[in-house]
Amino acid sequence: MTNDEFYIKRCIELAEKALGQTYPNPLVGSVIVHHDRIIGEGFHKKAGEPHAEINAINSVKDEDKHLIPESTIYVSLEPCAHFGKTPPCVLKIVELGFKKVVIGAMDSHDKVNGKGKKIISDAGIEVVSGILEDDCRELNKRFFTYHEKKRPYIILKWAQSADGFMDKDFKPIQISNSLSKQFVHQMRSEEHAILVGKNTALHDNPGLTVREIEGRNPSRILIDFNLEVPNDFKIYNNEADTLIFNSIKDSEENHLKFIKIEKENSVNQILEKLYELQIQSVIVEGGRFTLQQFIDQDIWDEAIIFKNPDLHLENGTKAPDFDSIPQKIENLRDTEVLFFKNRGLD
């Protein structure tokens, strides 16, 4: 591993500390190095707050500030060049006159896309990009998918028995264990939104929040064309913002937003709306019908299946038809967790 790779790896580690907290902004980490000594580091914590580079600059001790013009600043994503809620980071980098700037991945966002790098090199500062680029893109897979494919990053998730059922005799049953429940709640806190269809809402009455861990509740998305889910169900409580895709009305009521769409081609309409609303990632939690629509149209990026190899339910709702090969399998005690990536989208 080269020096540059070592420090970009540290940028990624820092950035990951804010997973789930920065929407709609990307995850970014930054490190300032003088003669192989880290004199400052920081990461972007939340939209509207200072960016990673500024936090790194501010963390440099007073007695080290004079070293900045002889230092290299590492950043996992191309520094921003536009005025948003905060001023452009490139201006600060140029103003302080760093000796060198090392960038992990370039930013495909229209407002940046090479502009940050150009401003830095036009100022006569040496700039290198594409260091551990794949790792930096993986860190921001949600952000890149959203800006490049104009849709959220889609994660399919369900639990099934050894014989491929999601419930017992069409009634809810605990398939996975308490450890996997914590895993799911952690996952929810990291993604922007979580989606279920009407049948799951009626069948399981889920709250779709993060109760088992400390973390933010994702936005909830319900597909309910005829508005059949009663408004005293948990999905309507005020613990999270909730979008209801339906064919009856467009309206906003406190934390609820009703969005009218057609039944035909509904998945694409939903994704277009979510893109407009700047939702960068969605966990599709089911049920079978909803999951199968995403699978059949090949609109998914990752899938996670919780499988109980000792549980045979014999009758009930069949798990979706899904013939991908898992990328890896982990065990959470007696539950197998199968992880899939949609390689067709690479």
What does this protein structure show overall?
By secondary structure, this protein is an alpha/beta fold. The chain is built from 10 helices and 15 strands. It has helices spanning 3-16, 52-59, 89-96, 115-122, 133-139, 141-149, 178-190, 198-204, 266-276, 288-296; strands at 29-34, 37-43, 72-77, 100-105, 126-128, 153-161, 193-197, 219-223, 242-246, 251-253, 256-260, 281-286, 302-308, 328-332, 335-341. The strands form 2 sheets. Strands 10-11-9-8-7-12-6-13-15-14 form a 10-stranded mixed beta sheet, with helices on both faces. Strands 2-1-3-4-5 form a 5-stranded mixed beta sheet, with helices on both faces. α3 (89-96) links the parallel β3 (72-77) and β4 (100-105). α3 packs parallel to α4 (115-122). The radius of gyration is 23 Å and the shape is elongated.
From the helix content, strand content and strand pairing, which structural class follows? alpha/beta
Mean pLDDT, to the nearest integer, reads 91
Tally of contiguous helical segments: 10
Uncertain ranges: none
Helix content: 25-40%
Distance between the termini: 25 Å
Largest sheet geometry: 10 strands, mixed
Q: What is the element string, with H for helices and E for strands?
A: HEEHEHEHEHHEHEHEEEEHEHEEE
- Choose one word for the global shape: elongated
Strand order, main sheet: write it out: 10-11-9-8-7-12-6-13-15-14
Fraction in beta strands: 15-25%
Number of distinct beta strands: 15
**What is the radius of gyration?**
23 Å
